[in-house]
């Protein structure tokens, strides 16, 4: 039995951590420092591990779920509807007129006005106050179970709090979205990792939620805004505004603004105010959602096929411009990914001159059927980088040329491949100058070896002069070589040599990141450093070995293994070391506990064993197990020696496995063999 005091301590920690999480992620006004939060979190984790007492709403339950093979289907108890659009104030006035006509009333209607979030609609089902399922909208009737992924979003409450009555069941709907700045950072990071870019924050949010590995979702900065209700049992609401108030007090994140407006004229004024504010918002919004406030009136109006007659989405006119695509070209990144981009006749859109934009990938380009010579609509939505939203087909003359996937790299002429099931198109040229230069730039970049002065321009210069063609060459650079170049004088040359010298002392995490292994970003590099003592431990590593790191999935594991099994790479690494590179690993945690033979097992000892009891207990702990003093349903094994005590009966009554000391040694042995395989 777990001590009452411990139980209470765990419960208190969960309560407090959840409150601080809410202050931080929902209210955006933390009252304790991050360090204090972490300290409490790790203390809770320790207690949970030790006493096997884990509450369903414990913050530790947000992370660490294993990747799925596929998503299960979930039926929505009430269909998730879509919205009709209004493109002008006139459309809104017409919407109001129709509602009044159907309600047979002349009276001004009370509406609510909320921003329209551009993300992914999600339904959260709470049973007896606890989050039980989170699902995507899917076709409106049936979506996918993304519970583990949604749990990683810190603003999603795991438990309904602070309301007088906890409903037996409630479906809460909202939008998962990503802030513009986080979307751009994510794309930058993906570009560095050689992954295809997301076209907009919505795709990034959707891609992050529809991810089989929740550990990846956990690294994405996602937010939630709740705005709707599905089926509910045990609490009554009269109106949208009442429901929103309830959501707020129950700690749910709600839209950035929420206004009541009586009469359609007031609605229009509210929308105008919103439009002024929209560009100062951190997220993208392309309109406002107008809903009739009263649930009674909503019911009366009902649904027209898939859209309610009581709500409409007003779309803001976007900053758009029309221009012509002069050319489409491919740019080659560090990992060989070729990204198509368009060059425009320069056009001013919302005060900014736009002359080029990425076309993201060939799937996007083909879907929109974008060709060289096309007249296109370019949009700058919010602060997002401009993008082509549509081709004006009427303007086609017949001379437009598609830009098919090149068969050869535009920079080095090597073959181009597209891996099955991948959007990315890659140049496979080992010595492709574009790739090599990008690799070197990445190697020297801030999060990597941080060599000041070895940026894009100098890498290009050194490359073209034949001075630096790979990582090794960097460390062979001499001051005399630099002084021969137009851009360098005594001081600047010495500075660069010093920076290179300094970079020779680095950490394993930085170094792994610097190598630019496909799919391995800063986060994965850190995980590898936590688990592998030194660089040599990674040489010839097998995929399965890396997969033992919980947060690493197959794609990364395979890529790392492939890298460290390539003799040429090993040779390069050895050369770097012989040039004086010193790699320390302060991140190493040796969390080999995942692989420790007794991890996850709890043992209790009774009677006299051939060895002193404390020695056996120490051995258990050393091998990753837990030695408890009393039997409970969480006990994995009772080790029974001579003259066992009352624990034996207790274990028998609970159906716990009872073993001898020799059998215990056998367990260690068999687990050790298993983990060596
Ligand atoms: S209400 C019938 N409110 O827009 C009610 N939806 O185009 C339907 N959306 O599927 C949802 N912000 O994914 C509502 N404040 C908001 C919204 C919103 C974004 C999304 C939602 C919906 C889609 C319809």
Poorly predicted spans: none
- Class per helix and strand makeup: alpha+beta
Total helix count? Answer: 24
Examine the coordinates and then state which fold CATH places here, giving the name of the CATH topology of the largest domain.
Answer: D-amino Acid Aminotransferase, Chain A, domain 1
How much strand? 15-25%
- CATH class categorisation of the largest domain: Alpha Beta
Radius of gyration: 30 Å
User: How many β-strands, per DSSP?
Assistant: 28
Largest sheet: 5 strands, mixed
Give the rounded overall mean pLDDT: 91
Model description:
- With 677 residues, the chain is of the alpha+beta class.
- The protein has 5 domains: 4-61, Helix hairpin bin (Helix Hairpins); 73-315, 2-Layer Sandwich (D-amino Acid Aminotransferase, Chain A, domain 1); 320-417, Nucleic acid-binding proteins (OB fold (Dihydrolipoamide Acetyltransferase, E2P), Beta Barrel); 433-584, Orthogonal Bundle (DNA polymerase, domain 1), CATH 1.10.150; 602-676, BRCT domain (Rossmann fold), CATH 3.40.50.10190.
- It contains 24 helices and 28 strands.
- The strands form 9 sheets. Strands 2-13-10-3-9 form a 5-stranded mixed sheet.
- The longest helix is centred in the N-terminal third of the chain and has 22 residues, at 4-25.
- The radius of gyration is 30 Å and the shape is flat.
- Bound molecules: 2-(butylsulfanyl)adenosine.
């Amino acid at each position: 039995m777990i001590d009452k005091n411990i139980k209470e301590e765990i419960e208190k920690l969960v309560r407090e951590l959840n409150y601080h999480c809410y202050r931080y992620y929902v209210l955006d006004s933390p009252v304790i420092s991050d360090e204090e939060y972490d300290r409490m979190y790790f203390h809770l984790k320790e207690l949970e591990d030790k006493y096997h007492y884990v509450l369903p709403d414990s913050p530790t339950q947000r992370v660490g779920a294993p990747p799925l093979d596929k998503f299960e289907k979930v039926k929505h108890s009430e269909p998730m509807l879509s919205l009709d659009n209004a493109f002008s104030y006139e459309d809104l006035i017409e919407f109001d007129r129709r509602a009044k006509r159907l309600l047979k009333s002349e009276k001004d209607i009370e509406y609510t006005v909320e921003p329209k979030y551009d993300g992914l609609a999600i339904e959260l089902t709470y049973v007896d106050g606890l989050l039980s399922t989170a699902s995507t909208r899917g076709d409106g009737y049936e979506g996918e179970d993304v519970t583990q992924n949604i749990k990683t979003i810190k603003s999603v409450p795991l438990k309904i709090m602070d309301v007088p009555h906890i409903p037996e069941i409630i479906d809460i709907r909202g939008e998962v979205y990503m802030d513009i700045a986080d979307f751009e950072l994510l794309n930058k990071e993906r570009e560095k990792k050689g992954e295809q870019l997301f076209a907009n924050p919505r795709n990034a949010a959707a891609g992050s939620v529809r991810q089989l590995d929740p550990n990846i979702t956990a690294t994405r900065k996602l937010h939630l805004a709740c705005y709707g209700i599905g089926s509910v049992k045990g609490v009554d609401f009269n109106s949208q505004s009442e429901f929103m108030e309830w959501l707020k007090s129950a700690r749910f994140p709600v839209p950035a603004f929420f206004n009541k407006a009586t009469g359609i004229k007031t609605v229009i004024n509210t929308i105008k105010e919103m439009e002024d504010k929209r560009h100062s918002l951190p997220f993208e919004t392309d309109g406002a959602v107008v809903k009739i406030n009263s649930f009674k009136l909503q019911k009366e109006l009902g649904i027209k096929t898939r859209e309610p007659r009581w709500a409409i989405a007003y779309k803001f006119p976007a900053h758009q411009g029309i221009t012509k695509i002069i050319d489409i070209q491919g740019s080659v990144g560090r990992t060989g990914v070729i990204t198509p981009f368009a060059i425009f006749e320069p056009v001013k859109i919302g005060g900014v001159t736009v002359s080029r934009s990425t076309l993201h990938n060939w799937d996007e380009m083909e879907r929109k059927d974008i060709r060289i010579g096309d007249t296109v609509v370019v949009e700058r939505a919010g602060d997002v980088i401009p993008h082509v939203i549509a081709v004006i087909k009427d303007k086609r003359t017949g001379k437009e040329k598609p830009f098919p996937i090149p068969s050869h790299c535009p920079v080095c002429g090597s073959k181009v491949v597209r891996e099955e099931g991948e959007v990315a198109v890659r140049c496979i040229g080992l010595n492709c100058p574009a790739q090599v230069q990008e690799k070197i730039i990445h190697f020297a970049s801030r999060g990597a070896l941080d060599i000041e002065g070895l940026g894009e321009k100098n890498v290009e210069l050194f490359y073209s002069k034949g001075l630096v063609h790979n990582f090794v060459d960097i460390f062979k650079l001499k001051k005399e070589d630099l002084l021969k170049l137009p851009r360098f004088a005594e001081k600047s040359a010495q500075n660069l040599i010093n920076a290179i010298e300094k970079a020779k002392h680095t950490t394993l995490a930085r170094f792994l990141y610097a190598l630019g292994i496909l799919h391995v970003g800063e986060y994965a590099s850190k995980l590898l450093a936590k688990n592998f003592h030194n660089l040599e431990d990674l040489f010839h590593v097998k995929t399965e070995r890396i997969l033992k790191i919980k947060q690493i999935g197959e794609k990364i594991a395979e890529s790392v293994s492939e890298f460290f099994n390539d003799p040429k790479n090993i040779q390069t690494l050895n050369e770097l070391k012989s040039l004086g590179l010193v790699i320390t690993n302060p991140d190493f945690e040796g969390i080999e506990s995942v692989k420790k033979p007794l991890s996850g097992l709890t043992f209790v000892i009774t009677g006299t064993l051939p060895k002193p009891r404390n020695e056996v207990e120490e051995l258990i702990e050393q091998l990753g197990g837990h030695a408890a003093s009393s039997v409970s349903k969480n006990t994995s094994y009772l080790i029974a020696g001579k003259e066992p005590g009352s624990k034996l009966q207790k274990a028998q009554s609970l159906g716990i496995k009872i073993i001898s000391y020799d059998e215990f040694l056998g367990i260690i042995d068999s687990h050790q063999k298993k983990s060596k395989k």
